[in-house]
Amino acid sequence: MNPKNKILFLVACVLFAVNASAEFIREDGQWKIKAGTTCDVNPESLTPKVMMRLNAASRATEAKNYSSALSLWADLAEIQKGKEAEAIALINSARIHIERGQLEVAEKEDLDEFFKRHANYAGYGEAVELTYNLANLFAAGERPYLGGWFPWFKDNLHAISLYEKVVKCAPNGPLADESLIRMARLNHDNDRKPEAIDDLTRIISDYPNSKYAAEALETLAHLRSEESLGADWDQATAMESADHWRTLADQFPNDPRAKLAPEQIKILRDRAARARLNLGKFYWYSRNNPVAAKLMANSCRSISPESEAAQEAEKLLAEIAANPNPPTTIADRLLGAYPRPSNADETKPVVINDDLDSLGFQKEPIHPATEPERH
């Protein structure tokens, strides 16, 4: 077989395998095996019984005879474990348990079992959507019911683990980015800022074209800005916040949030510049160090040249240039001026005598190793 025909044969085999995969469909109120597919009932002799159970369980579900329906779906899942009939049974059981308020049962006994064994099921998206809806119920404060009748404790934060399952099970699905933004909102509302920041960062990095990207950037910018406690503290998060605002303005110029970006960037850059200015004033007025003071003042001007802090830095530089010594304080009069650090060029080299090495040890003459000395 030549290479071309071999490739065509392999493609045909793949297409046949895809077309021949088992798939149950429901038409006119009855379950059937889709034309062109093979039944994966094991053993095959159970096919009539499986079809009867599928139809009976579906009729009981539609009639809201949930106890009978759950029993039928459970039996079907047990005798067809790992097969498509089990996938159908688990999804339908999850729907009934959610309807009855048995939220934990729907998650642990139905959906988790589905995801373990049925990644290739044609209706995989139904299970993902059910998990997402279940997460929404927890997030909204829905009260679970034990056994379908006994009220249990609300737990809205449990929704986060369910949203995470949606992202993990279908990272490229239509609900992945929506699950992340809902996680971020829920964490933010419950004062879990580090977790919210992580969720928002994942949206920006993994789903840059998401319809929630602009919201993620704005919220992330606010959260990072809040981490900076003021000009007397580290400004790394303030600068990161400014970067998020700039990204928002560049990538989403028509979004209403982008209109806030210029003013926010100005505030944040002024805060970061003022942090350097404060350091410059500290070195000049409190540590008698004009070199460090000028370095910080120039850094302030570089960060935000048009800010008020930069204008103050100009005045500080002019003051240092006009007078080599800082103003004398009461403490200076009582204790003396703070000692000024010596510059590198003021350090004089230490002269070492020719008879001493650089560490000050006596140098001994080198004697040749004569034959008698060796013995």
Describe this structure in words.
The chain is elongated and about 100 Å long. About 30% of the residues are buried. The chain starts with a helix and ends with a helix. With about 375 residues, the protein is mainly alpha-helical. It is about 60% helix and about 5% strand. The strands form two sheets. It has a two-stranded antiparallel sheet. The chain has 16 helices and four strands. The model is unreliable at about 1-20 (pLDDT under 50). It has a domain at about 30-190: Serine Threonine Protein Phosphatase 5, Tetratricopeptide repeat.
For this entry, give a set of tags.
375 residues, mainly alpha, Serine Threonine Protein Phosphatase 5, Tetratricopeptide repeat, two-stranded antiparallel ribbon, two-stranded antiparallel sheet, 3% strand, elongated
List the helices and strands and how they pair.
Layout: H1 3-20, E1 24-27, E2 30-33, H2 47-62, H3 66-79, H4 84-99, H5 103-117, H6 124-139, E3 145-146, E4 150-151, H7 158-169, H8 176-189, H9 193-206, H10 213-227, H11 236-251, H12 261-286, H13 290-303, H14 308-322, H15 330-335, H16 371-374
Helix pairs in contact: 2-3, 2-4, 3-4, 4-5, 4-6, 5-6, 6-7, 7-8, 8-9, 9-10, 10-11, 11-12, 12-13, 12-14, 13-14
